[in-house]
Design a protein that fits this description.
Layout: H1 10-21, H2 37-46, H3 56-63
């Protein structure tokens, strides 16, 4: 488990995960809160690991209260 102090800068977050993936095999990206669902989906889609979770379009419906 790794922690990041800020999820707002997506480009820096992608770079940090890419740096970790140089030495570690990351199988799953899990969102611990409903606010992190979009971030997790964005990372899954960027690194092409959508077979283990929702992609970005499904995550948008999860966060959209009107669609729920």
């Amino acid at each position: 488990m790794f922690a990041v102090n800020c999820f707002h800068d997506r480009r820096s977050l992608i770079k940090a995960v890419a740096f970790l993936m140089r030495s570690l095999k990351i199988d799953r990206i899990v969102a611990l809160d409903d606010f992190d669902v979009e971030v997790g989906a964005d990372l899954r889609e960027h690194f092409r690991t959508t077979h283990t979770g929702h992609d970005e379009s499904v995550a948008r419906y999860f966060r959209d209260k009107l669609a729920m």
